[in-house]
Design goal:
Elements (H helix, E strand, L loop, with lengths): L1 E10 L6 H18 L3 E6 L6 E10 L2 H16 L5 E10 L5 E2 L15
Antiparallel strand pairs: 1-3, 1-4, 2-3, 4-5
Amino acid sequence: MHVLAMAIDLHLPVCRSLKEKRAVLRPVVDGIRNRFAVAVAETDHQDLLQRAEIGVATVSSSAKVATEVVDEVERFVWSFPELDVLSMHRYWLEEDGVLGADTEDGVLGADTEES
């Protein structure tokens, strides 16, 4: 089993209220949820008007498939011109429950899959 999570930190320069922020984030979060077989939620900066963090997670029997799904989610988020992507970080969930990169068990980290 391969679990890949991604944290997407966003700047929303057009938002002047929490209502506007919800209106901008709703199509992103709902679009990710409806287009891809992933879990998605706003995970940080809920009280800030122009910042948001979206968490995305996918589970697959293949590291390659999990990576491809998260790559598609990343492209989808970049397609929204009203968002500024500040950062995107990927995390593999290891079998022992620890987030991280390479282990001796053969679970691949995000940067080592194609090596």
